[in-house]
Amino acid sequence: MHTELIEVMRNQASAIYWAVTGSDVPQSEHGESASQPAPGAAATTEADAASIDEVARKFVELEVMARSVPAVAEHVPPFSFVPALDVIEEDDGLLIEATVPGVDLGDVVVQRAGDMLSIAGNRRGPLPRCKYQHAEIPRGPFFRELRLPFPVEGEPHVELERGLLKVRFKRAPAGQDVETVTGA
């Protein structure tokens, strides 16, 4: 997922650069943009994960600054988002629906720890070097966490249809302790 996040940040930086300067990111001697890794560069290792997370946090700060300038914000899609969701009690359990249009099920992680549910993932952006004339649809990571309203049991049943993520749980029998479960 880190490689995809780096690519989304690279595309976002290109969009910000174009919105500010009106030109493409300068190319290196090798014909790659300055933000591209050098040919043969080592793949991201687990040791780099903390550094990538820190870069992502700083990148969010850059994106917030870019969005504060209306002329730039119009040409740069939001970098991250929080999906809207509904929590619906059903006869035999619980249904959580979250809006994640343009996202593949393989780009979503659903985890439950006790009575907390988290939904995270990444909406991929368009092709690199895209020049937005107007941008509102967020590209990049998303995250949502919520407390489940009553005890549930087992693994969640997760499906994605037409941009609507559906997470279903069975209701736990009354008085049953519910173990911590994580799953995708």
Name the descriptors.
184 residues, alpha+beta, Immunoglobulin-like
Describe this structure in words.
By secondary structure, the chain is of the alpha+beta class. The protein has one domain (2-171): Sandwich (Immunoglobulin-like), CATH 2.60.40. It is 23% helix and 29% strand. The chain is built from three helices and seven strands; from the N terminus they run H-H-H-E-E-E-E-E-E-E. It has helices at residues 2-21, 49-67, 70-73, and strands at residues 85-90, 93-99, 108-113, 116-123, 140-147, 152-161, 164-171. It has a four-stranded antiparallel sheet with strand order 1-2-7-6, with no helix packed on it. Strands 3-4-5 form a three-stranded antiparallel sheet. Strand 1 and strand 2 (93-99) form a beta hairpin. The longest helix is centred in the first third of the chain and has 20 residues, at 2-21. It is elongated and about 65 Å long. Residues 33-42 and 180-184 have low confidence and may be disordered.
